[in-house]
Amino acid sequence: MASSSESERKEPVNEQMVANMYGALRSELNQIYSKITELEMEASEHSLVISAIEPLDPSRRCYRMIGGVLVERTIKEVLPAVQRNKEGLEEVISRLNEALEKKKKEISDLEAKYKIRIRKPDGEAKEEDSGRKEGAAQGVLVGPAGES
């Protein structure tokens, strides 16, 4: 069944299917970007915790949230666990970066194969609107917001 969906993905029948496939790939790319960003923030938080508790006495008490429950541990117990979690996050981030590069290549291949160009209607509309607004605003005097 996976091979039939791959063949559909490789050879779309019409322009609408190409557009849908391209949109789905762009959506997946955005999801990967957001997940990477989220995990990088978590890894950064882990680094902050590690740098804060490393110089402290290993027998000192500290608290850690595990599955929504706050537990009391010593720094000696918590520090290795936080370091392992950070390493795991970094591994996942590297895998996601590899997936991101594959997805970018897949999108660029699709763009090249079907000669896909992205239209920027916002930029064109802004240029047209700004020209109209300048013409319409000529001769209008506006005072400071505080005056009546």
UniProtKB/TrEMBL annotation:
Residues 119-135 have a biased composition (Basic and acidic residues). Pfam families: Prefoldin_2 (PF01920). GO terms for biological process: protein folding; response to cold. Residues 119-148 are annotated as: Disordered. Keywords: Chaperone. One of its GO terms (molecular function) is unfolded protein binding. The keyword Aminoacyl-tRNA synthetase does not apply. InterPro entries: PFD2, PFD_beta-like, Prefoldin. CDD domains: Prefoldin_2 (cd23163). One of its GO terms (cellular component) is cytoplasm. It comes from the Eukaryota. Belongs to the prefoldin subunit beta family. This is Prefoldin subunit 2.
